[in-house]
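TEACHING EXERCISE
Course module: macromolecular assemblies
Task: Read the component lines below, then compare them to the predicted structure of the full complex.
Student: A.B.
Group: 4
Components provided:
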Amino acid sequence: MRRAVEESVLLARAYLSRVCEPGSFVLWTFIERVGPVEAARAIRLGVAPLEVMSLTAARRSSADAASDLDAAERHGARLVVPESDDWPHVAFGALERVAGPSKPGVCALVPPTALWVRGHADLARIDARSVAVVGARAATPYGTHVTAEMCFGLAAQGVAIVSGGAYGIDAAAHRAALAANGITVIVSAGGVDRPYPPSNATLYERALENGLVIAESPPGSAPHRSRFLSRNRLLAALGTGVVVVEAAVRSGARNTASHALALGRPLMVVPGPVTSAMSAGCHQLLAERVIGAILVTGWEDVLSVVGAIGEVLPEDGYVPHPAGDLRDDLDQLEPTSRRVFDALLLRRYLTAEAISRRSGIGVLDVVRTLPSLILTNLVESGASGYRVAKRVQAPR
Amino acid sequence: MRRAVEESVLLARAYLSRVCEPGSFVLWTFIERVGPVEAARAIRLGVAPLEVMSLTAARRSSADAASDLDAAERHGARLVVPESDDWPHVAFGALERVAGPSKPGVCALVPPTALWVRGHADLARIDARSVAVVGARAATPYGTHVTAEMCFGLAAQGVAIVSGGAYGIDAAAHRAALAANGITVIVSAGGVDRPYPPSNATLYERALENGLVIAESPPGSAPHRSRFLSRNRLLAALGTGVVVVEAAVRSGARNTASHALALGRPLMVVPGPVTSAMSAGCHQLLAERVIGAILVTGWEDVLSVVGAIGEVLPEDGYVPHPAGDLRDDLDQLEPTSRRVFDALLLRRYLTAEAISRRSGIGVLDVVRTLPSLILTNLVESGASGYRVAKRVQAPR
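Instructor-supplied answer key:
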């Protein structure tokens, strides 16, 4: 049974969502301080702090929360607010933790004031396990193919596919999720009733059936450039991880990638031909070690980063006395490598520190030993550490 | 004027090169201990240590150094030995430093006993600046295209291209170096007179004109499987860095890659379509963070890893008061980021530690700040650190 949100709160947040552009740290801190109802009242009456008043001057008198809520209802949309049960706390908690004053011209990383939501899926469920997929509008056939394969696989595994509803990679991601009968979420830069680009209207309609179209700006809002930029922070926040499929050297995907990093979300990147300008941004992200982007080649890789460990691994047993090549490889290990290997588990990934504890070998030596174990295909690594390679795990 | 190597040493090393298969730690330590002349004498007389005798039993009586040297001369080849002026000390010094007992069935990382060398290039010069390029024999058009572009560019910049003379990536690498009128080195698994595959004989001939064909086994030797494996360590050692262009998941390139890591050589890897099995091994190397492979997309990237910094950078000046977008980006930096940026140089890469010293900002904060500077295209990173991005460096 869902707890209903008080009407006054809904009206206040609808008003606040209309009266100020998304991504304002000033408005967000004001609401946090005095609460949404008092914040809305103070702005309407012109008694809010000067900074807040200047942000809201243009629309504070004309904004009509009741009419926006009516329009939303006509479009089958609802307003989800932090006070709602289905507010995505995991996603937006990350924004809260990093919230800080915006730099000039740059969207601040703050939670949205409210979300306008169309569609049947449960936002709280999406919050638990989803991947944001971003990339070029001018995607190549390679990019759309890889996106389709990846998103179909992820959606079939119950991972919600979050993207921006644009041409190219976005559309390929949403379509693949729909094809898999999975959940997809379009995070729109304009209102939930304003598909953009308009020719993707059918895609938006389809997304509603088994997913969501969500927007920070109220119904009727046009997708301005600044709203695309503030929208990108929601993409990054709503994904348990962010995947960049194709991106030119300077691109919006890079903007979303930087948000992902700021939010502590894993940033996954698909490589491509070095001859393709549409992969150049991806390679740049991968080449910059300090960014820490994770190279992924398919849905299995993505799942090993964002999914619960062990969830999709086939049931398999361990052969303690393997035959042939494998036994040779194991026999050839010198004692330190062998102790490191013996400390590993079959399914769960262990960190170098855990391997060190289990093997009694110093962490530095563990880290020095692992590369050769990986190169001889005895060990494989995932985002959370190392385990016995699949080939050592024979079927029962 | 070159110092001549004593005839007795040449004869001894020619004999040792014939009498034992490449990559024996036992033989190498024996020669190191007693010298090549005494080692050859002891083996021939059957008075060497038991371990050495068992390694050399098959050929110790039949081996005929004078005849091998004659054969070499007929093929226009010479014997280069550690006592020669043109012995590649940089390359093989790395093998010496890591030398250790071989594991069963695995080639030990030891320097060669001697090298049979055909061709006009100077081995000592190659030692200073070269790149080993390895990859699949069953290369795709993508792989050979990328190899050709990369190796042409590197060879034109005076970097010697070292590879194995095989089909696919190897052949594309050699051909591109030749096309650029650059230096190329074929490291043959058989004798220098035995092109392998035989259909690459013309490529071998061309390589002699402006490069080298070198082999560890004496003339006439067939390219056995074990010789391919021991040859791979020479490829890794002879390159200032190793580039893997295309590789299947289990491949010889992986073997060379592991040697490169063991030798402390930078391992560079070219990504490709995730849909291509021939790039799967490359992506595996790039995805394993602990391996530390460097993603490269063209010759410029490779040069920034192996070349002397600044050598190929265009002459360019710095615009202290840049206009437009760039000024905006700089103005938006918060104080820490701005101090980190101001500590950077235009051409020389600085490590995070050096930036910390110059800026007075702690290393950890420097490392935390760099990703956002890179993502806003203000800073770029190379193998040896960070510098002001090219776009900030306007032409004079």
